[in-house]
Amino acid sequence: MPDITDVSRKMRKDIAASVVASIESGEVDISVSADDVTDGTVKVSMTVGERASLDDLSTTVVKIDGDNPGVVILDQVGNEVGFIPMDAVRALILPYVRADTSTARIGPLRTVSVDGVGGLAILDDIGNEVGFIPMDTQPLRLPHMRADTGTLKAGPLTARLVEGVEGIVFVDAVGNGVAAAGSGSDTAPLDEAAVLKKARPANSVITLGHSKTAQNSWQGPFTPSNPGGVARKADVGWLAWADYYLRGSINWLFNAGVGSENDAQILARVANDVIAKDPAWCFVMGGTCNSIHGGMTADQIIALQLGTETEESSGSILGLLQDAGIRTAWLTDPTWYEGHEDITGVNAAANLAKLNRVNRAMLRAPAYKHGLLAFDANAVIIDPLSPIGSAKQYMLQGDDKIHQAPWGARAIGYMMAQRLIAAGFPLMDILIASAADTYGNSSTSRQLLDNPLMTGSGGTNSNPSVISGTIPAGLRLTTGGTWGSGYVTSSTVARSDGYGSDLVITVNNTGADGDTLHVVCPSLATRLTAGDIVEAAMQVDITGMAKVKGHELTCSLSNGSVFPQISTLERDATVNDNAGWGHQFYDQSDLVGGVMKTGKASVPSGTLVDPTLRFKLTFGGAGGTAVVRLSRAQFLKNS
User: What superkingdom does the record give (predicted)?
Assistant: First the structure.
């Protein structure tokens, strides 16, 4: 095979035959999923037919005395289906796996425990160390796996795909493998069921950053009514909007956003707030604006966020996430709105230059940094023609001129969703598909609503002077505020896909600011017990919006003493109204194609006060209109 020392990275990826040596089949077998695609780390391109032959992949080691060595993954006929680059500075292959390219040899690999250095050496057939897996007091993290030093035995090291696990499972000659810490003795064979159970969910996410991240939820992660900061998903946060456009696919584990922090403070929390919780993804909006306000230089901020602007990331927020095998989606920090001191004061020009410098470095970083996606949140917020670099009007909160308003959060969330889909973020089919999947049909069902597909009629009209038409069985429509006569009509329309009906509600004309429309499901009190973990979801489409200033899905779990709540796109009326946010701060364009999915919370002990699932639409003035289509509603417990 030809020497490819001087071949560029792009050419090397395109020409699979350009290799130095091939490890013979059966000695090292690496199987990858066609969905394991990450920018700059593993580039996989497969046809549907090739998915059937994943177990037939072989591994080719590319040894280059240049800056871009790596591992090429070939199929049986020599077509390249994957490439894992090795950083010339850190010689990185996989998360927590290092190898020196100058010592890479052909031959079966063996794993050897190394005493005193907290790790596992990988040797080739003549004893050269070609890799090292560090282990400290924390269990080893490989893609979606963990291991302690006692769980791997010496012997030929193979790697294979375990169905349902996104990543690579390593096993030795006698079947001992990378299993969860403490899952069994170090002589027990790999328990694939245990691996599946312990695997890191591929859609699991922790959000990290400063106040623009913290406001993804209305209360902090240690508030009893919002455990983990993920139960109440705010309409001023980009996470809830991204999840809507991803059709409820995000498994949000923890909100690690802390107000007023700079990048140095965020860095200090990464180990405890992110790595210890072991997510597949970390969505970051760093502390750029706070760091600038505190007097840091652009170079200092870049070092804290990225390390260097090329390959090396050690000591940075990204570097810690890389070492833990956590994929990172980083949003650039948006600009300020005119009137904020940092964009209109004496340091305005210098501040804007720093912001642009840091954001530009971040957007270029995925070309050098494995496991990193960079999303330009600033680009969707900034007014391109503003001479001072100000945000567009109504994108940021009008009172503080720095945090995103619901309109800005929606714009960022939509952009995030499109980029995540392109990057292979796992999309989940979460909505109910059967009218028989109800608690009323069987008390063993974890879906508690009796009419999830919105069929039939005979629902309750609580305000017939305002509302007319058909209401599905078991549902209740009501209004709040000042309405005129006959302003709302309701009907059911059979869905073309067969999943029951859409409840179609047409609002013709609201009466005043603060008018609300509610679609309420029956009380679930008798179907919930203390300790149940609950969440809800519904397909929601809204068109023809005028003067709408809120659309949310909520359920209160209050027992009168503690007040947990699950919600998505929740509008906090006190915050919004006190800040003077009118309907202008909400995008009035059609909201279609998504799923509203609440966060999760535990049901408290005691008697619950009206635990009903509720969709609420809020208007910002007389003359408001909207056409709402609701369908495939579900309320799940312990699921």
Answer: Bacteria
Domains 204-422 and 460-637 agree in fold: no
Q: What is the 3-state secondary structure (H, E, C) of 439-465?
A: CCCCCCCCECCCCCCCCCCCCEECCCC
Neighbouring-strand partners of residue 95: none
CA distance 253 to 579: 30
CA-only gyration radius of the chain, Å: 27
CATH 2.60.120 fits 460-637, yes or no: yes
Residue 38 CA, chain-centre distance (Å), reads 14
Interhelix angle for 298-306 vs 263-273, to 10°?
10
Q: What are the structure tokens assigned to 639, written together?
A: 């699921």
The neighbour count for residue 4, using CB atoms within 10 Å, is 21
Give one DSSP letter per residue of 327-354, joined into a string.
EEEEEPPP-PPTT-HHHHSTTHHHHHHH
Q: Where are the alpha helices (DSSP H) in 405-550?
A: 406-422
Query: Kind and range of the H or E element at 358?
Result: helix 348-364
Q: H-type helices in 24-136, by residue range? A: none
Per-residue pLDDT band for 321 (boundaries 50, 70, 90) equals very high
Cα gap 34→48, rounded to integer Å: 9
**Among 567, 214, 216, 206, CA closest to 413:** 216
Residue 602 β-bridge partners: 533
At residue 575, the 3 state secondary structure works out as: helix
Q: Which two tokens stand for residue 297?
A: 């230089």
Contact 168, 161 (CB under 8 A): yes
| CB < 8 Å & 24+ apart, contacts of 391-394 | 391/334, 391/335, 391/336, 391/337, 391/338, 393/337, 394/584, 394/585
Record: fold of 204-422: Rossmann fold (3.40.50)
Question: Closest by alpha carbon to 144, among 179, 191, 92?
Answer: 179
Q: Which residues contact 443 (CB under 8 A, 6 or more apart)?
A: none
The sheet that has 92-94: what strands, in order across it?
92-94, 97-98, 129-134, 119-123, 110-114
Encoded amino acid at 523, one letter: S
Alpha carbons 368 and 88: distance in angstroms, whole number:
11
Quote the DSSP letter at residue 362: H
CA distance 74 to 62: 12
Which two three-digit tokens encode residue 91? 């010689």
Rounded to an integer, what distance in angstroms lies between the CA atom of residue 206 and that of residue 129?
A: 35
pTM for the full predicted model = 0.73
b/e for 228-250, b at 16 or more Cβ within 10 A?
bbbbbbbbbbbbbbbbbbbbbbb
Q: pLDDT-based confidence at 200, cuts 50/70/90? A: confident
Q: Six-digit token pair at 28?
A: 């090292």
**Tokens matching residue 99:** 């190898």
What is the DSSP code (8-state) at residue 629?
Answer: E
Distance CA 452, CA 538 (A): 9
pLDDT band with cut points at 50, 70 and 90 for residue 561:
confident
Pair 84, 41: CB distance under 8 Å = yes
pLDDT at residue 195 is higher than 50: no
553 compared with 132, residue with greater pLDDT: 553
